[in-house]
Structure formats: structure tokens, C-alpha cells
Amino acid sequence: MYTKVPVNDEELQHKKIRVTDKELKEILGWETTHIELSRVATPIKVTDIRQQGVSNCFMLAALGSILEKDNDYLNKLLKYNTNDNTVEISLQEDKEVWTYVLDATKIDSLKTNNHTHAAIFLLEKAYALHRILKRDKNDPKKEECDFSLSIQESKGEEIIFSSKLFKIQPQSFEYALEVGDPSIAYRRLGLPADIEIIPRNITLIEFKEMFESPLIILREGKDAFGDDENFFNRSFNQIIDNISLLLKLNALEKETLEESLLNFIAQEKQKRESIIDSIEHHVNVLTQSSPLSLHQNHERVNTLLISLFAGKAPLPEAINIEQIGTRIIESIPQKRGLKLYTTEQNEFFKRISDNLTQNKLVIVGSKEIVGTFQKRSSGVREKNSKGLVSEHAMHVVACYQRGGLKFLLIRNPWGHTVRDYYWKEKRIDNQTVLVLTAHAKTNLNSFSLFHHKEKPRNVVDIKNSTRNLDNKTFDQEFKKGGYFELELTDFTKRFETLTITKDSLATKVENKSTSDFKNFKKEYQEARKTKEQSADRETLGFKINL
């Protein structure tokens, strides 16, 4: 039986709100149905979360990351009352705790999730109602109605009974749950968190595009601005800022570049155009190169830098063209599988690892486009591309290195459909290298409205897979639950948001379920590493050493 864990913070104001199924039907039009409560008192496993028809991945990913550490956590949120068949579910809102007393039933909707534990459905019911009362998704163009509810408020020893009139917009259960912010979901589950944009490295094509406007202004010089010297100065300063950011320059290098370009601007237009032509040529040559060739040979980058700093001669000893060139090259992302990572990628990986080590929780969100140039069609909930889903939240379980590659272990709240890799030959700069090619893998025993069952892979596919572990064991124990590895370069290319809890999870419960999973994860990594070392020896004459 769930027992309510009291909140010790005396500053929190508690609100208890009773909402019956009859009221939900009359005011919101929500129908309810019986829910199987035989397992409601049993601990919830992460794999009980099975998102299917409702787009509330942001909430389910937050819940999944919590259950990964403590599958008793819902004891702090949920209390089941056997005497009147109601459930109390507490959600936190800033300095308030809102406890909803609901009938222990499930919302009967056309689109629904496929969870295997009643408590998750009950939590979704309360969360959807809370979002309506808090006006999370109000549309100013839609009409509102009154929803009068009795509230029991308490702060410390004082208890006040009152009736409050909420102005709400009636919404379907699915709409009320759909789309949200993982940091808000964490906060309402009692764990404050911050959401941020993941730093992204620019591609060589973007590098070229970012040079175009500054070079046009430098080519025209002050003449193009007439007598408006202030406007020119602002534009010139912006050029220095942009190029310095692009080239990863420090303060001294930025100052030297500014002196160089000021000397350049002062020259006659004909000479200035000749130098700009040269710089444009070097930019074009650079951006037509592959990241791998630049990593192995800095000459093209250094030539561009010399042309930019040419107006400042001789260069101060502190300006090292080789060092600047190395920083630029190390900021350009490589093909996945080459074991080469940018400085930003390595820093990001370490940050995720450090936070997980501190027992903090991490959610990542994918971009709108995750592998196709075609945007989502109207009416289609989410776009799927080789096991990844656009604008989808998933929680991070672990991150680790193996064989020179860096991986994040992630769980899809769908509980199926994951990304898998296999090695593929690729010709880059007249070299044959092995890169990772992605494909989708769907749990064949899962039912899904959005995905076709994948055809069985042939023996060659399995043999060449980076997994190199018994296929049946891996699927049943790992991927069947929606867990999969994502290589770091692949991740930073296709994900854009990161949510991390501000504080460590206070309670870490070690039970048979979590310990078995950790043991399997360790055995899996060791077996995979051994198999890959063996595969490396077999293909030594084929794979380039990077």
C-alpha cells in the first residue's frame, strides 16, 4: 500500500482538491473507465512506462529518470485510499503542493498510452488536470468556463477550507497532456531543474556562409557607408566579434585581428579587393575539404589564417597560427565512428557524466529534424527517422567510452523503437575508413500505431553490427525495454535540449530490479568490448587507425 510521505518544508503551502469523475465529465467532457489496481501497491519499474498515443514524453522521460534511481519515488506523490477507492496525487508548484483527490479510475480516451502499471495512468490523470487549472496551454481565442472546486489549504498547523472558482478552457485529456517542458515536469514531481540549448558545432558549409557578409563589407570598405562613420564602426566591430567567435580567438588574438583588418581597410580599394579575393579562395578551398583531411593536415586552415592576419606583420609572438588552426579544426564535427570529437563534444560528454555521477537526472530532447529534410506532415504526431523521433524527450541512463567511441545510454519512453548501428566502409580523401551507419530497430512484439514492423536482419547485418552480443539476449534484456546507445557525434547532431535536475536525487534505492539491470549493463559493455577487439584484429588490414 502506498503511504504518503510528508513534506518537511514548513514554508510550503498545501492545497488539497477533491475532483470527482462526475465533475470531470460535466466540466471537461472526460470519460473514465475501470483500471486494474491489483498491482497499484507494487514498485513501479522504468519499463512499465509505455508511451503510445499521447505526446507526453516530456513528463514520462522525467518520471523514467526518477524511477531509474528510485522506483519507490511515487510513494512521495501517491496515496491510495482503499476505503473510498480514491487516490491522492501531490504535485509541487513553486512554494505550493497541490494534492488532487481523484477517483481511482483511468481516463477513457481515443488515444492512450500502454503503461503496465496503474499508478502511471493515475499520475497522468492528475497531471492533465493540473495543467488545465494552471492554464499551461490556454488559447486567448478560445472561450473559458468556470470550474468551482473545494480546497483545503494548510500551512503549518493552520487549515482553511474554501471554495475557489477557476477560469479554465475545456480541453481533451490528450491535448492537456501533450507538449511540455521537462524542467516543469521535474519541478512538479518535486525536483527543480533547468533546461538549456545544447551547444552545437558549425559545419564547414556554415563556416563558409558565416564568412560571406563580413567579406562583403570588408571589400567595400568605408566608402560604402558614406559619411556615417558610426554605422561603419558598429558594423566593423560586429565583423570582429563574428570572425573571432568563428575562429575561437582569445582576447589578444581578437585584438591583433582587429589591428590587421583596420590596416586592411585603410588600403586602396584595388589592393583590398585582391586580398579579399585571396581570402575567399582560401575559404572555398577550406570548406570543400573533409573534416577528416583537415584533422590530418592543417595547411588549408593555416593558409586562411595567415591571409586574415596579413595586415598585421610581423605577428606578435603570442599569436600562434598553428594553435588557432588546431582549435578551429577541433571544433568541426567528424563522421560518427571515427573516434574524433570536438572540444565542445568532449566537454558536453564530461558534463553529462559528472552530473550522472552526482546522482542528478538528465533528459535530452531531439530536434525537429532528426535525419530528413522533410518537415512533419500535418496531422502526424512525430517524425521517425532510423529509430529517432523529432521533438521527443528521452532520459539518459549512463555515458561511457568503449573502443575509442563515446556513447550515451538512453531510454525511449515508447519502450520500443531504438537506434542501432553497424559498421560501413566509406571512402574519405582516398582512404577507406569504417563509419557507423544507423538504422531503426523495433521490438517486434510491441504494438504501435505509428511504426511498421521491421523485417528481420540477415546474418551479414548481425555479424557486422557494433553490438556483437547475442542478439536474443540483447533484445530481450535491453532494447525490448526501449534502451539504446547513441554515439556522441550522432547525438550532438540530432539533439538540441538538455534538462538537468538542480539537486541530486536524495534517495537512491538499490533493489533487485535495479541491481540486475546494472549487472547486465556491465556484462554487456564488457562482452561488447571483447567482441569488438576481436573484430578489430580481424579487420586490421582494412580499418584505418585514427
From TrEMBL:
GO biological process: proteolysis
Coiled-coil ranges from the UniProt annotation: none
InterPro entries: Papain-like_cys_pep_sf, Peptidase_C2_calpain_cat
Natural source organism: Legionella gratiana
GO molecular function: calcium-dependent cysteine-type endopeptidase activity
The protein's name: Calpain catalytic domain-containing protein
Stretches assigned to the Calpain catalytic domain: 382-504
